[in-house]
């Protein structure tokens, strides 16, 4: 983050400040070739996989990409959104959320960008600069900070800043306890419970992370725990009515526990039949929520005699856009009016 003197307003009255809403990224087609391109970029990031390249590159190029691209493309195909404004759910919902934020913040130019794939964050920052933007607010759509996600966005922002003298860049690091965001998540769960009746248990499932990252100081797990406790408190849930788990394990090393799959199995074994599952670490729905939770884990839980009811992410809901707009106004009062 930099703090330079306030910039003058654009002489043409056009917005001189851009809000760049950044998400992880996703393939641009549900094909093995597009998935391979996306995974290759993502899994080459040292923030995501820090193994020495002598070991990792052969494993990635000769084992993981050839074996993973086709089955993962099938998964994307099962959740792909059709139509002119369609695509991978992560891209579609991020784009729609950026539009909803534009309506909330008419004084800024709001654009969406991706850390991996298109529209690329690095290219987006350059394009905005060539359009005359000199002040940038970057909002990574990760409520909880992790070096594997937020810090990787910061790497791109830092590289751009180094080559863009005269530009002012600020970035929000996390919003895991922001009252507006906690309230929006609790409201979404509350609306689901009003519509469908409350389940017997609420499971809050977060994306996992190698345990090693947390052991060396990544605050992600502590922030997930704090977010989940705040959402449960906003709903007035007693401790035995909810739990927290981690999904989307990748590779063989130890990841955060308990896993969502094991937690569902334990709930089924205890005779808990109707479980509501929400994913508060994901700002918008994506392969990890729609395919992994709402399809695969729901099928597995049904086979154990239970019913898993997935509560969608906040996506482009007005309450999500309102919460994020208020958070940005409070965090950057001189840039976001
Ligand atoms: C070592 C591998 C991975 C780490 C570390 C990791 C951390 C991490 N990821 C998210 C959010 C998302 N991940 C998504 C997909 C995804 N994640 C990994 C691997 C790691 N993630 C892979 C290989 C994939 C692609 C799908 C697959 O091949 O199984 C997504 C969804 C993308 C989409 O297109 O829908 C999100 C979002 C967080 C928050 C996080 C650390 C906290
Ligand atoms: Fe490589
Ligand atoms: Fe991931």
Automatic annotation (TrEMBL):
The catalysed reaction is: heme b + 2 H(+) = protoporphyrin IX + Fe(2+); Fe-coproporphyrin III + 2 H(+) = coproporphyrin III + Fe(2+)
Enzymatic class: lyase
Q: What Gene Ontology cellular component terms go with this record?
A: cytoplasm
Which gene is transcribed and translated to give this protein?
Answer: hemH
User: What Pfam families does the annotation carry?
Assistant: Ferrochelatase
What is the protein's given name? Ferrochelatase
Give the UniProt keywords, A-Z: Cytoplasm, Heme biosynthesis, Iron, Lyase, Metal-binding, Porphyrin biosynthesis
GO process terms (BP): heme biosynthetic process
Described purpose of this protein according to its UniProt entry: Catalyzes the ferrous insertion into protoporphyrin IX.
Residues binding Fe(2+) are 207, 288
Q: What species is given as this protein's source?
A: Marilutibacter spongiae
Query: Does the record bear Lyase in its keywords?
Result: yes
Family the UniProt entry places it in: Belongs to the ferrochelatase family.
InterPro entries on file = Ferrochelatase (IPR001015), Ferrochelatase_AS (IPR019772), Ferrochelatase_C (IPR033644), Ferrochelatase_N (IPR033659)
């Amino acid at each position: 983050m930099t703090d330079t003197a306030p910039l003058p307003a654009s002489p043409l009255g056009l917005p001189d400040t851009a809000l760049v809403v950044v998400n992880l990224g996703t393939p641009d087609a549900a094909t093995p070739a597009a998935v391979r391109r996306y995974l290759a970029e993502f899994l080459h990031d040292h923030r995501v996989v820090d193994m020495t390249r002598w070991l990792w590159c052969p494993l990635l190029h000769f084992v993981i990409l050839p074996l993973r691209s086709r089955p993962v493309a099938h998964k994307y195909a099962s959740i792909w959104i059709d139509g002119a404004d369609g695509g991978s759910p992560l891209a579609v919902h991020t784009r729609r959320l950026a539009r909803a934020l534009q309506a909330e913040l008419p004084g800024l130019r709001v654009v969406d960008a991706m850390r991996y794939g298109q529209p690329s964050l690095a290219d987006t920052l350059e394009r905005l600069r060539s359009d005359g933007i000199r002040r940038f607010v970057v909002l990574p759509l990760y409520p909880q900070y992790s070096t594997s996600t937020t810090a990787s966005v910061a790497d791109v922002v830092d590289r751009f800043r180094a080559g863009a003298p005269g530009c002012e860049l600020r970035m929000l690091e996390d919003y895991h306890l922001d009252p507006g965001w906690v309230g929006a998540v609790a409201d979404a769960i509350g609306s689901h419970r009003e519509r469908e009746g409350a389940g017997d248990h609420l499971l809050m499932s977060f994306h996992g992370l190698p345990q090693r990252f947390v052991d060396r100081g990544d605050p992600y797990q502590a922030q997930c725990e704090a977010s989940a406790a705040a959402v449960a408190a906003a709903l007035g849930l007693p401790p035995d009515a909810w739990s927290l788990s981690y999904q989307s394990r990748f590779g063989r090393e130890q990841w955060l526990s308990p896993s969502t799959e094991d937690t569902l199995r334990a709930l089924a074994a205890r005779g808990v039949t109707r479980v509501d599952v929400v994913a508060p670490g994901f700002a918008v729905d994506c392969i990890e929520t729609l395919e992994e939770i709402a399809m695969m884990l729901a099928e597995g839980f049904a086979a154990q005699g239970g019913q898993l009811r997935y509560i969608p992410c906040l996506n482009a809901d007005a309450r999500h856009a309102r919460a994020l707009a208020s958070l940005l106004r409070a965090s950057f009062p001189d840039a976001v009016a």
